Each structure stands twice: as C-alpha cells, then as structure tokens.
Amino acid sequence: MKHVKVLHIVGLVMVLAATSVARGRAQEVPPPDQPEYFAAEPALRALVARALDANPGLKEAELRYRATLEQVPQVTALPDPMVTFTQAIRSVETRVGPQQNAVMLSQAFPWFGKLDLKGQMAVKAAAAASEAYAAKQRDVIAQVKAAFYGLAYVDAAVGIAEEEQSLLAHYERLAEDRYASGQGLQQAVIKIQAELTRIMNRLLMLREQRASLAAHLNTLVDAPPDAAVPPVRTAAPPIDVASSLDQGALYALGEANRHEIKAADAQVDRDERAVALARKNYWPDIVLSAGFVNVGHRHDPAGIASPPPDNGKNALTVSVGVSVPIWRDKLKAAVRQATDQVAAGEQSRAKILNDIQQDVRDQVIALQTLADQIDLFQRVLIPQAHEAQRSTEAAYQTGQVGVLDLLDSERVLFDVRLVNTKQQSDYLIALARLERAVGTKFPR
After folding, report:
1. Is position 145 within any domain?
2. What is the pLDDT of residues 249-262, one digit of tens each?
3. Which of 300, 322, 344 is at the close of a domain?
4. What b/e sequence results for 175-212 when a residue is b if at least 16 CB atoms lie within 10 Å of its CB, and e otherwise?
5. Ranges of H-type helices in 223-325
6. Distance between CA 284 and CA 324 in Å, rounded?
7. Disulfide check for 223: which of 64, 181, 227, 267 has CB 3.0–4.6 Å away?
C-alpha cells in the first residue's frame, strides 16, 4: 500500500510539471486596435463601422487569428504521460516471491528550451495572423470608400444628366416655337429630340451602374444585394493635400504602419526560432519513468519452510531514458529548411516594401494630376462652358446660330461638368488608396 502511494505521488508530480510548463509558456497576442481612417461624411463613417462589424471576410480573418492563438497552449504543454500495465503470463520467480504484474508511468521531457521555442513560434504565428486580420480591415475600409465615392459620382452624374434633360426640353420648346413661327426648321426639333433620347439612354446606364455599385456596397456590409442605398453626397475633396505630399515621408509611414510588413516581420521572427529549434533537435529528449511491481508470496516448499524477510514485498522502480538523435541527415535537412524559410521571409518583406513604394508613388501622381485638373476645370473650363452655352442660347433665339451650335454648346457644358465630377470622385478614391498604401489614417 505504501508503494502505491509513492507511485501516486510521483505521477502527480509529473502531471503538475506538465501543467506548470504549459501555463508558464502560454502567452496571448492581443487583437488589433480599431483602425482609424479619414472620412468627412457621417454616412461613410457609419458604413465603414458596419462593415468592420459585419463583413464575413473580416469575421473569417478574426477567427483564423483566434484559431492560431490556440496553438500556444498546445505546443507548450508536455507530451501526454504514458501508463503501461504488464501482466506476467508465466511469473518470474524472485527471492521474495513471483512477479505477477507491473504498472509503469512514463513522462517525456523535451530538451531544455524546446518548449520555450515552440511557444515563441506559436506566439509569432498568432502575431502574424493578427496583423493579417488588421490588413484585411484596411482592405475592407478602402473597398467601402471606393464603392461610396463611386456611388457619389453616379448620383451626381444622374443629377447632371437630369439637368441636361431639362435644358434640352427647354431647347425643344424653343425649336418648336421657332418652327411654328416659320423662323426655324422641323429638322432642328428632331435633332433636339434625338439628343433627348441619348440623355435618356445615359440615365438608364447610370442607374444600372448605381445598382451594381449599391449591390457591391451592400455585400461589404453584409446586407442583401438589393437593399436600398440612400443617395450619396460627398464633401468637397481636399485638393490642397496633393500639393504637400512628400513621397519619402509616405514611404516611411507605410513601412512603419503597414500590417503586411508587421506580419512579415513576425513570420521572420517565427522562422528564426524554428532554426534554433531545429538545432536543438540534435540534443536528446529525456524520459522519466516510475514503476510498481506486484510481487506475490512464496508458496514453494522452501519459501513455506523458511519465508524470506521480505516475502511478497512489492517493488518500486525509477528509470531514466533518453532519445538517441542519430539520423543526422534528417536533422541537417531540418536546419537547412528552417534557414531557407528565414531567407524567403526576408525576401517577402522586401517585396512588400517595394509594392508599398509603388502604390504610394502611383497614388501621389494620381492625386497631384487630379488636383491640377480639378482646379483647371473649376477655374476655367466650367465657367467658360457656362458662358458659351448662355451666349449660344441667346444667339439661337435671335436666329444668329443654328441648332447644331446650340447642341454643341450644351454637350460641351454637360461633358465638362461630368468629367469634373468624375475627377473629384477619382481624387477621393486615390486618397483612400493612398491611405491603404501607408496603412494608417490619411490625411491626418
């Protein structure tokens, strides 16, 4: 009975050791902070907040991060202990009696530092998954912004087209009045009516485009594709930002904030610990065992006639074993594999940095070009087109110009207004892409 208690104590010590090792190495990687972003419109902020809360792709990324985090307590725990029971079919006779059966409890202990390295690798993998989740948040924010600004352009374009439709209806009445008074031709009325048909077709195309953009935006916020999206209006784009852009500062901002860079750094850190672990595999693991052997009383004539002092006394054993890492080719290959993974991770980081710089450069050029175009259109072209349209309409009413001149002036005004609206939308989209490129709120 005393031996059984000793065996229980040894087993309890092994289990407590395994538990303490696992608890001591379990570390948590906090989830990413709520991202900050530029949005002048309350409606856009509400849509982004809804997307961050409900987007299925983001939920998937968060769950993958949490699943990776659960690797930490698994890889830092000791291997499960093993209990072995041996029943003697033919008893082994000893001086104190036959050995009838035995129970052995074994616990493997990896070489010093292996569990620490496995835990650190799991923590770094969880950190990389956390950064991937944060990068996915930035993707969704940029997509919501692009869809929102695209809808703003379409809604503004519809308004411009409807204004042009009203203007053409006014021209149609002028042409009919001139035709009725004998001062104009019926052909002029027909040409204006054909232009009205063209505008109606443009409106149909714009409304189809809006339905597609609205469905995309609904998908991003996990709403039904055909859910109603209210008309979208944007604040005036901050075109003054374009004149103060510093590519070098933006490169540094992207390197410091892009979650893809942080994920690559975490992956390299993990792979460096994998190299250290592969080198530790050259060292043996240790196995501690404690055994209880059940010994029966002697019933042979000699034992009955003269029982030994320890007749039938059970035996307690303790043993130590080590693994023998003799397959050196396998161990060397593991070190080379881990080393190559580190080099590959460093190259991946370099590629991400190159992509960031290219994205920043592209968006800076786009913003500066669009800012110049917006300024030119608003200062010069749109006022000129308005003036040309008004003077041509007055000249048409007095018969100084024909209907083709009138329609040309109307078409130029419509085109420059529409192009300017598209420029403003493209500017805001480029600003959202630049924010995505630098990985933090921009402009601040």
Report:
1. yes
2. 999 999 999 999 99
3. 322
4. beebeeeeebeeebbebbeebbeebeebbeebeebbee
5. 247-257, 259-280, 301-305
6. 6
7. 227
